[in-house]
Design goal:
By secondary structure, the chain is of the alpha+beta class. Helix content is 45%, strand content 23%.
Length: 542
């Protein structure tokens, strides 16, 4: 059974067998690499935005465990196989990695702290506190790196005045930090340090911009707070109006913009109000007087009797008139009702509101399948406007304005629905990369088969002689040997085959029949010699 295979290999020759072996080994290696590539877990980020200290420590740990990894962005990103990410993160967290480039309370885990001086202990405590605060700040969204510097004055003996502690923070953010986040960082640090107030914490970004100063009365901070409040009011009202109107006209069929006017002036008003109708008796004073007086009666003339001595002793009262009178005086004091009102109006209240709402029309499908647009009626727009007024708290006396307009959007629902149909399968970014990698590998495999393997195999097979021509040539050679060995008659001796006949026999399929006929004639003429030749062939084959 193996003789045809050996004969086939002998017919190919050593160069063609070596070429076929090289192609087979190359194809086998490529298939092995392809299968291993598909079966190997892809590399995903283990940690990003690492410092050089953390990257060095993590790489050393990965090397000790013989885990495959890749470094990106000058060591700031470390990639590891996806199936080992969670386990590695838990193991590294147990070892305190990544530490963020700073040291925390693990500095006291060392055993040499027993013989340390108080100065070293205080410095280590300060370093640990700064490191822990920096780690806490980095957990806030948008913060990439943070450094904390604390100034904790020592209490001097016999000193009445004490210097308050202070802190300074340097942030490296991934974008603009909101004022609420900056205040949160100030309160976080102030709450973690004894006797530290938020007003004593300064915050600076990596560009040298002052985000929060250590002064309590900061006009810039107040302005930023008012802007943040305005944005918050606009965002809250816009989401509420969009959710309400979208439930009527459909998703992505409404656009809402709100402009809020915020009062930035702090006003203090004091008023005294008097109420005349609300009188109250404060005090009452009453005085009574009684008066008695006598007056002489005037005489008509001078007489001798009146001029005589002692003439009026007997009738002394005859010439006087007595008068008596009573006087009553009352004073009543009333207290008028007075109300003193002091009203302080802080900055930040809503002074005016402007709302603009744009809604799309109604779409329908025509008889020919085209999309037909239809505007909304004024009655429907009035109802939507009434809903918006109630949703935002419309106040006419405040000067609020609301405008609801129907306009056709650039994208119709049909195109949006067609775009959404392709997204029923949700793929992550890693899935897209994996699919792209598999497609590229398949394309490379097909190119190798078509451009490398196929031409080589075709070339090897093209150089191989055809079985029919090979068999005919073999039979021709055998017949020539048999004819030369047999003593044929003088008249019937077959002529030796010519080279032109051999070349024609390789190209034509009819040569085989002619050769067989010629061999048959020779065998019929010399049967004994033919039997001897066949025996000789059988012995050689055995």
């Amino acid at each position: 059974m193996l003789n045809p295979l050996f004969d086939f290999l002998k017919s190919l020759g050593a160069p063609r067998i070596a070429a076929m072996g090289a192609v087979s080994l190359g194809l086998l290696g490529f298939l092995v690499w392809f299968v291993m590539r598909l079966s190997t877990s892809p590399l995903v980020p283990l940690y990003t935005d690492l410092t050089f200290q953390d990257s060095n420590a993590i790489v050393g740990e990965l090397d000790s465990r013989a885990i495959e990894y890749d470094l990106r962005q000058d060591g700031a990103v470390i990639l590891v196989p996806r199936d080992q990410v969670l386990r590695l993160r838990m193991d590294l967290a147990a070892d305190g990695l990544p530490s963020g480039g700073g040291v925390g309370y693990e500095i006291f885990d060392k055993g040499d702290s027993l013989g340390a001086t108080s100065f070293v202990q205080n410095v280590n405590h300060l370093r640990a506190l700064e490191g822990e605060l920096a780690r806490s700040i980095r957990t806030i969204k948008g913060v990439q790196a943070a450094r904390v510097h604390l100034v904790l004055p020592e209490r001097q003996l016999f000193a009445r005045d004490r210097t308050e502690p202070s802190a300074s923070i340097v942030l490296k953010s991934r974008g603009m930090m909101e004022m609420s986040q900056i205040k949160a960082i100030q309160h976080l640090v102030a709450s973690a340090v004894e006797d530290l107030s938020p007003g004593r914490v300064s915050v600076v970004d990596e560009r040298g911009k002052l985000l929060a100063s250590a002064e309590s009365n900061d006009a810039f901070a107040m302005s930023a707070t008012l802007d943040e409040r305005r944005v918050e009011i606009e965002h809250h009202l816009r989401n509420k109006v969009e959710a309400l109107v979208a439930s009527v006209v459909g998703n992505d069929r409404v656009r809402v913009r709100i402009a809020a006017d915020i009062n930035t002036t702090r006003t203090t008003e004091t008023a005294d109000i008097y109420d005349p109708a609300g009188r109250v008796v404060r005090s009452t004073q009453t005085r009574e007087e009684q008066n008695t007086s006598s007056e002489p009666v005037a005489n008509d003339g001078v007489t001798v009797g009146n001029e005589l001595p002692g003439a009026n002793q007997n009738g002394a009262d005859d010439g006087n008139a007595t008068q008596a009178g009573n006087t009553t005086e009352e004073v009543v004091n009333y207290e008028i009702s007075r109300t003193t009102r002091t009203q302080v109006q802080e900055a930040g209240n809503l002074r005016r509101l402007s709302v603009a709402v744009v809604v799309d029309g109604v779409y329908s499908t025509g008889n020919n399948g085209d999309v037909v647009y239809q505007e909304r009626t004024q009655q429907e727009l009035d109802r939507i406007s009434a809903l918006v007024r109630n949703a935002v708290g419309y106040d006419e006396s405040r000067g609020d304005s609301i405008e609801v307009v129907n306009l056709r959007f650039a994208d119709n629902p049909v195109s949006l629905a067609a775009a959404d149909e392709g997204g029923f399968l949700t793929f992550t970014k890693e899935d897209y990369f994996s699919i792209a990698e598999m497609v590229v590998l398949l394309i490379v495999g097909l190119l190798v088969l078509l451009l490398v393997v196929r031409p080589l195999v075709r070339r090897i097979l093209a150089e191989q002689p055809k079985p029919e021509a090979d068999k005919a040539a073999q039979l021709t050679d055998q017949s020539a040997d048999a004819a030369a060995a047999l003593p044929a008659p003088q008249a019937e001796r077959a002529p030796a085959p010519k080279p032109e006949f051999l070349e024609a026999a390789k190209a034509a399929g009819s040569v085989q029949a002619e050769v067989m006929e010629e061999v048959g004639q020779i065998v019929e003429s010399n049967p004994t010699e033919a039997v001897n030749v066949l025996r000789h062939w059988i012995q050689e084959a055995a």
